[in-house]
Amino acid sequence: MYTVIVVEDEQELRRAIIDKVDWASAGFKVIADAENGIEALDLIERLEPDLVMTDIKMPMMTGLELAEQVREIRPATGVVILSGYDDFEYARAAIKYNIISYLLKPISAEELSKELLNIRKSMDRRFSEIRGSLNKDFETIDRRLKISEFLLPLLLGNTEEALDEDYLAKTAYELDLAGDSLTPYYSVLISKFKNKEGKNATCEEHIGFIDAVLNRYVKNESFFVSGRIVTLITTKTADTAELLELPLREIVQNAARVLGEECTVGISRAVDTLSLCGNAYSEAVAARRYTADGAGDVRFIADSEHGNVGDFEKMEKSVFKLEHLLKVGNSDELNRFLEELSSEQNGGNDGYFVIQILSAVYRTVSEVSDRKGLSQLLSENPVYSKISLHNYDNAVRSDIKKLCNNAKEIISSYRKQDTEIICDKVIQIIDSEYAREDLSLTEVSSRLNVSPNYLSALIKKTKKNNFINLLTERRMKAAYDMLICTPMKILEISERSGYSDQHYFSYCFKKYYGVSPNKMRENKRSVT
């Protein structure tokens, strides 16, 4: 049974739709109803229905505005519009918000019952496509094989040949991986699915499930590798967070509703060359693992880690060249290279770079010398004296264990601190800008350089509330103060509280305080 919420401002008509339409025969169950879009949004976020049926003309929020909001918070939910307007502009807007049916009023209960059968078929087709399966025709299999042979070594970082950027770019265009952009960007997604017992249920068939959603938004290629789905995303911009926010949320929601599985997704930063896809793959793996902290099932690596793929790739290339010069270069070449390294800035990652160099030198010496050579290296270079890997006794084991645990504590402390700082900044923005009607979660997340999905999950985890409620609460407290302490008119208070529509403001105020603004003012005056 598909679950439904009915939204209609006229109570009599709303009851008629709920009571007289034959929902059960079409496979639907009404789980709630609302008299306006504000109530509906709260119900949709809590009850997660499969379908919302709404009138298009309602006070405070139209049906199309509700559909737009539904698409933001729950893209997996379908919307049916009931309208008295046979207008092309309304229909075009309906298509924009993925509304699955646009019905003209007046419509009888019998006609609506019949129309529900068509809506059911449409939703069945949609869910069938989402469940998906791999295309088995020969041309598709042959193309996927060629793409796999080209991409997987790049993604998994196990190519042994030198990577020629011109060759990679040419091959990408030949295989139609780059899309229609002359300067494409690539990101990697890692997706994993768990069953109700919490065990990994990811399989090759999930590729069709991922494709059914992503194909509507971005160019992508997916593979089943080592118990996870690996997806290469091609875009025209490096700013992928906003672009991927909706489809990834839809994937997670559909996995829960359609497959009965928990889906977690990690997303790398965007890179501008295919040679960096191995690093992007590692970032995506790390990002997905961060979902274990409970702050959302979708995690962009930029939400949890600082730095840049290119910076670390450059370091690794420098370390590789150092190893090469240590083995086969002459002294002049080595010294020139070291001079170049010392003159370069490494973007705040100097400590990491030093450790990589120390490790590379030690590794190279150990590969070409014996125990005596390593002893000489360690004894003649004080930089190694504190971490003598040569003498790996119990004391050293204890020191390294302590070092690792201290590092873990520091990382956890900074992560908790970052979380609290981000949420405190959200509260500061709300406190100072609540009067702006267009203040939104998406805008705030952009200013804080995190994804909207991550910020939303972070607020819920840390503040035990969502962004809209925190904003509404602040606006209501400001409105209360102005109402009680000033002679301002209700319209002016409404505008200064972030509401251009006075009726909408009065509705929100009454919902929050239990009485209308005018009644609240009268009550306070009578007391004084």
Overall morphology: globular
Order of strands in the sheet with most strands? 2-1-3-4-5
Give unreliable regions as ranges: none
Mean pLDDT: 83
Rg, nearest Å: 29 Å
Biggest beta-sheet profile: 5 strands, parallel
Descriptive overview:
Strands 2-1-3-4-5 form a 5-stranded parallel β-sheet, with helices on both faces. α9 crosses α10. The longest helix has 40 residues, at 394-433. The chain folds into 4 domains: 2-130, Rossmann fold (3-Layer(aba) Sandwich), CATH 3.40.50.2300; 138-305, 2-Layer Sandwich (Alpha-Beta Plaits); 311-391; 394-528, Arc Repressor Mutant, subunit A. The protein is of the alpha/beta class and 528 residues long. The radius of gyration is 29 Å and the shape is globular. The protein has helices at residues 11-20, 23-26, 37-47, 63-73, 88-96, 109-131, 138-156, 165-174, 206-214, 241-259, 277-289, 301-304, 309-328, 331-343, 350-368, 371-380, 394-433, 441-447, 452-463, 467-485, 490-496, 502-513, 517-527, and strands spanning 2-7, 28-34, 51-55, 78-83, 101-104, 185-194, 219-225, 228-235, 262-267, 298-300. β9, α11 (277-289) and β10 form a beta-alpha-beta unit. The protein has 23 helices and 10 strands.
